[in-house]
Amino acid sequence: MVRSARPNATTAPSPDVPRIAIMSAFDAEWQALRAATDITGSRVVNNRTYYFGRLAGHDVVLLLSGFSMVNAAMTTQALLDRIPVKAIVFSGIAGGVNPGLNVGDVTVPAQWGNYQEQVFARETAQGFEPARRTTDFGGYGMMFPQGTSVTVAGAPPDSLVRQFWFQADSTSLAIARTVASQVTLSRCTSGGTCLAHAPRIVVGGNGVSGPTFVDNAAYREWVWKTFRADALDMETSAVALVAQENAVPYIAFRSLSDLAGGNGDRNEARTFGVLASANSAAVVMAFLKALPPTAFPPSRRR
């Protein structure tokens, strides 16, 4: 059952204006972006608030996806069913996987994979033998990554293929590359705790998403060797899949709050999570300011 907006939850947003959706998983990730938005109205759908307004010269709708894959997919589809969305921009934090990156760096991957869609393999005398394989990726013990079932544009209804990587919008990536050298990222928290290095922005490469918070050095090393992922998170590939199914372009900006178990004695997300969120938001703001009003064509939804 779909829950409708609460009475008086809508305050005059135009339902027909095509907008860029600005999404984050939780409140700390979008505070700077929401504060910078000239909010003209709001609407509550399924207990999620959509904020309508103008940001960096664009008509936008801001919302939280909620934590993890199911929430992210559900919230994205609910949004696209109700609002004419031109593109999706996701801003948030992630765990660092690439050993060449550090906390505070901002990653803007060219593609995202659902790396924890898996087959748990039977153990045999010869080792773990998966009953099916839809990718060439090796396993982590008994766990073997699989492609996600997606529909096929132009094919008969309900035709399915397995797909692992979901491509970010090429126009958006090009603009992100252009602004990367123009953004100064924060190095110190408001409490005076500073990173040992100057953060940087990396555009391109891979990201992966799954429904687990990763804080394990051995698993992190396997993720790097297997997928060459710069970052891992818990939402982006779910948003990317829904975006593809609806023919809506997307791009995700993820700043590293921790190293997913690859640092020394403790996870640093509690220390640098707010800083990482602010760094991601800073790059998103620069991206939106550089984004031409005509960057995205009218919706190509199937």
Automatic annotation (TrEMBL):
Q: Which domain of life is it from?
A: Bacteria
Give GO MF terms, alphabetically: catalytic activity
Give one GO biological process term: nucleoside metabolic process
Domain (Nucleoside phosphorylase) spans 19-289
- One Pfam entry name: PNP_UDP_1
| InterPro entries referenced in this protein's UniProt entry, alphabetically | Nucleoside_phosphorylase_d, Nucleoside_phosphorylase_sf
| Designated name of the protein | Nucleoside phosphorylase domain-containing protein
Q: Which organism is it from?
A: Gemmatimonas phototrophica
